[in-house]
Amino acid sequence: MIGNKASLGVYNTNPTKQSGADNVVVIGQGASALRNNSIVLGHSSNDIYEDYARKLKDGVSAYDDLPDKDKYEFDASGAVVLEKRDAMKIPSYLPPHSRLKNTLKQMDEKNLGIVSVGGEMVEIRNEKR
């Protein structure tokens, strides 16, 4: 762990049970890692993410080679239904029919950790002279 106010712990919904995380690299001012096996690089970067993912139909795996209409839930207007999920539960993206799907599926099932590069959102302006 390197950086001003950098920290590491274990992800836990009960803050009284926080303890050290294993196999973690944290570099950056204010960077933090709470999950085992995470790599966190950059100012205020962390390894706790939630995002929206396409909702799978019951009994379907993200790694099944199916057309979207058979794989995902759609609303009445025909838009795919999104659900908020922990990033560790969002499957790795693969192009359809990729030969790596079984390997990534096995890796995802092991919850190996998060790699986070970056940090808080910043605005960069390209000033013309």
- Sheet with the most strands: spatial strand order: 2-4-7
- Mean pLDDT reading: 77
> Strand pairing plus helix content: what structural class?
alpha/beta
Strand content range: 15-25%
Largest sheet: 3 strands, parallel
Helix content: 10-25%
| DSSP strand count | 7
Q: What global shape is seen?
A: globular
Tally of individual helices: 2
- If you compute it from the alpha carbons, what radius of gyration comes out, rounded to the nearest whole angstrom? 18 Å
The ordered H/E elements are: EEEEEHEHE
CA distance, first residue to last residue: 40 Å
Flag low-confidence runs. 13-18
Write structural notes for this entry.
- The longest helix is centred in the last third of the chain and has 9 residues, at 101-109.
- The protein is an alpha/beta fold.
- The chain has two helices and seven strands; from the N terminus they run E-E-E-E-E-H-E-H-E.
- It starts with 6 loop residues before the first strand and ends in a 12-residue tail after the last strand.
- The model is unreliable at 13-18 (pLDDT under 50).
- It has helices at residues 68-71, 101-109; strands at 7-8, 25-27, 32-33, 39-41, 50-54, 82-86, 115-117.
- The relative contact order is 0.18.
- Helix content is 10%, strand content 18%.
- The strands form three sheets. The protein has a three-stranded parallel sheet with strand order 2-4-7, with no helix packed on it.
